[in-house]
2-(5''-triphosphoribosyl)-3'-dephosphocoenzyme-A synthase (Candidatus Pantoea deserta), 287 residues
Amino acid sequence: MKLLSQTQAEVQIGQLAAIARSCLIDEARLSPKPGLVDSRGNGAHRDLTLALMERSASSLHPTFLQLARQCWRRPADIALREAIGRLGREGEQQMMAATGGVNTHRGAIWALGLLVSAAAMNGGRADAEQLTRTAAALASLPDRAAPKLFSKGLKASHRYGVPGAREEAQQAFPHVIKLALPQLLRSRAAGSSESDARLDALMAIMTSLSDTCVLSRAGLVGLQTMQAGARAVLLAGGCMTVEGRQALARLDADMLALNASPGGAADLLAATLFIDRVCLTAHHAFF
Ligand SMILES: CC(C)(COP(=O)(O)OP(=O)(O)OC[C@H]1O[C@@H](n2cnc3c(N)ncnc32)[C@H](O)[C@@H]1O)[C@@H](O)C(=O)NCCC(=O)NCCS
Ligand SMILES: Nc1ncnc2c1ncn2[C@@H]1O[C@H](COP(=O)(O)OP(=O)(O)OP(=O)(O)O)[C@@H](O)[C@H]1O
């Protein structure tokens, strides 16, 4: 009996890791995304390609597996926080080895790593709010082994006085729960294709996120351009309408002209797709 439940746990752990990897690949391929790498090309990036993003996503599968195994049915405490911090940093090294030193998925390892961990802590069963609350509890615990780096994201957060990737997780992913998931469901219900509904969910995140990738590369002008442009797409009826598509093309051109890429928003879209798949039925109460 015990053996059977161990096997079932291992199957669910494998599913969580496979879903995380496929959400990263779905995010990368989704097109047309403003400023980002997609099936059309490299967006505002010189050192990133779709092939590199896909290789990076696959290199992270073992990290997601280890995170899920480590966290299976365990409570949030400092020992677990430190264990996942170590696994997350090892994941970053694996990503760097797979990409020849290019940062393809640092923010995504953080967001998806926490969500895979949280899903495993809940035994694979949780609704979207429970899942993100568990991830927030983990992200809020101290990790004594974390190196004190003054990263690009931290610099932008301090300079502009805005929250970054850490705070988004510590606040239980408000851009995913309050904006992206409800938009994904609304657009699907309105008859959008799956791809348009996902683009609309990305727009919903971009209307409000203080994306430190955009701030680092293009300052406040970049951030305001992103937020206003995304709002224009949704106000025009989203990506399923001709006007929405035109607004999306304008936003893409504006982001490229500013060398701006909303990498943080892309990470949160991958997180949204993960929750959508893991909490398949539970979050339909959202709208
Ligand atoms: C918290 C992280 C992302 C570092 O963030 P920081 O802002 O200091 O730095 P950095 O510029 O290197 O990366 C930030 C990345 O987050 C994403 N991002 C940017 N802005 C935002 C935002 N507002 N909200 C969410 N994500 C964002 C972008 O992809 C960006 O590239 C992470 O690398 C980290 O510290 N990991 C430690 C390992 C760990 O504890 N892992 C546990 C889970 S696996
Ligand atoms: N499709 C995508 N295209 C581009 N970036 C993405 C995509 N999906 C996720 N990202 C995120 O964007 C981040 C890359 O952004 P960026 O290139 O600004 O980082 P950087 O290498 O630290 O900085 P820079 O390129 O300005 O030197 C990654 O950490 C990743 O999490």
User: Anything to note?
Assistant: The chain has 13 helices and no strands. Confidence is low (pLDDT under 50) at residues 282-287. The chain has one domain: 2-141+155-286. Residues 2-141+155-286 form a domain with the Triphosphoribosyl-dephospho-CoA protein fold (CATH 1.10.4200.10).
